[in-house]
Amino acid sequence: MIIYGPFKLSRHPMYLGMTAILPGEAILLGSLTAFIAPLGFFLVMQAVFIPLEERSMSQTFGEEYTLYRKKARMWF
Question: Which of 1, 2, 43, 64 is the 20 to 30 Å CA partner of 29?
């Protein structure tokens, strides 16, 4: 399990990066409706994908992952 670099700060740095990029793209598009995508992405990640990944990681790494979860935040 990797616990350095961006994974030291966030358990899901890739999702965090994508969530940060989407509002920038909405600004570049210059449309208020484009801001729905970042919100939708965040909600889907939070409700669907992250729980699946967290469960899988807990099953795979057990106590080691539980300790990691205490050290690194989910998002940032």
Answer: 43
Domain region containing 66: 6-71
Domains held by the chain: number: 1
59 touches 44 (CB < 8 A):
no
For residue 74, give the amino acid letter. M
Assigned domain for 37 exists: yes
Q: CB of 9 within 8 A of CB of 76?
A: yes
Phi and psi, residue 73, nearest 5°: -75, 160
Domain-located, residue 1 = no
Give residue 39's pLDDT. 93
74 and 47 Cβ atoms separated by less than 8 Å: no
**Distance between CA atoms of residues 46 and 70, nearest Å:** 18
* 27-75 confidence digits (pLDDT tens): 999 888 899 999 999 999 999 999 999 999 999 999 999 999 998 999 8
